[in-house]
Specification:
By secondary structure, this protein is an alpha/beta fold. The protein has helices at about 1-5, 45-50, 60-70, 100-105, 130-145, 160-170, 175, and strands at about 10-20, 55-60, 80, 150-155, 185-190, 205-210.
C-alpha cells in the first residue's frame, strides 16, 4: 500500500461534513429549508481534523450555510462556493408533514430494510434518492476532471454523503441509502489524479466515516 501510494503523490483529500441538527416538529418530516438548532456545539474534535486553507464547497440550504459559519470560527478556507449539486434530496410535498401520513403514502410501495424509502421512490413534487445520487456523482466527476491537490471541505447533508459513498465505492444505491450519517459526521475520501490512477481500484479511496460528537475513551 505504502509503495503504491508513494508512486502516486498527486492526491487530493476531501472532507465531507454533515450539517448541525435542525429545528423540526416532533413526529414530522423536516421542513424544506429549516435553520439549525441554537446550541453550544462541541466542535473541537471536528475542526482539528479539517485542514486550513482548503477550498470549501457548501450546499445552498440554510442549515449547511449556518454550519459553515460555525466551523469558520475555527477554520480558514482559501475560498468558499455554494453548489446546488450538494443540496439534500428534495422530499417535495412530504416536507413538514407528519411521518405517519408519509408512511401511509409509501407503505404500498416496495419497502427497504434500512431506509424510509427505496432509491427509486419519488416523493410528490420532489426527487428520488437515485436522482440525488446522479447529480452528486456528476459533481464528483467534475472534481476529478479538474483535478488539483488543494484539499476540499464540503458542508452538506446525510443524503449527499450517502450518494458520495455510492459513487466512490461503486456501491449499489440500495446498500448506501440506509447508512447512518450523524450530524457533524465527517466522511473522508482521497482522490488520485485520474491521469495517474491507471491501476485497479478507481480514482476514489474511502478513508473513513467519523462521528465527531462521540466522546473518545481516555487511554491509561
Amino acid at each position: 500500500y505504502g509503495r503504491h501510494m508513494s508512486d502516486h503523490s498527486k492526491i487530493c483529500n476531501f472532507f465531507f461534513v454533515r450539517h448541525a441538527p435542525v429545528v423540526k416538529r416532533d413526529g414530522h418530516v423536516p421542513a424544506a429549508d429549516p435553520p439549525i438548532q441554537k446550541r453550544d456545539y462541541a466542535l473541537d474534535r471536528l475542526t482539528r481534523l479539517l485542514p486550513d486553507g482548503a477550498e470549501w464547497h457548501v450546499s445552498p440550504l440554510l442549515r449547511a450555510r449556518q454550519t459553515a459559519d460555525l466551523l469558520m470560527q475555527s477554520c480558514t478556507p482559501s475560498s468558499l462556493a455554494e453548489d446546488t449539486a450538494l443540496a439534500e434530496m428534495d422530499f417535495g410535498d412530504w416536507q413538514d408533514q407528519p411521518v405517519a401520513t408519509v408512511w401511509e403514502a409509501v407503505s404500498g410501495e416496495p419497502l427497504h430494510n434500512w431506509s424510509f424509502v427505496t432509491p427509486d421512490i419519488e416523493p410528490p413534487g420532489g426527487e428520488s434518492f437515485a436522482a440525488t445520487a446522479a447529480r452528486v456523482a456528476g459533481w464528483m466527476d467534475r472534481q476529478a476532471a479538474y483535478f488539483s491537490t488543494k484539499p476540499r471541505v464540503v458542508i452538506c447533508h446525510g443524503g449527499v454523503m450517502r450518494a458520495v459513498l455510492a459513487a466512490a465505492l461503486g456501491a449499489p444505491l440500495s446498500q448506501v441509502i440506509g447508512v447512518p450519517v450523524p450530524h457533524f459526521g465527517l466522511l473522508q475520501l482521497t482522490l488520485m489524479d485520474p491521469a495517474r490512477a491507471t491501476h485497479d481500484g478507481g480514482v476514489w479511496l474511502f478513508s473513513g466515516l467519523t462521528d465527531t460528537q462521540v466522546c473518545q475513551p481516555k487511554l491509561g
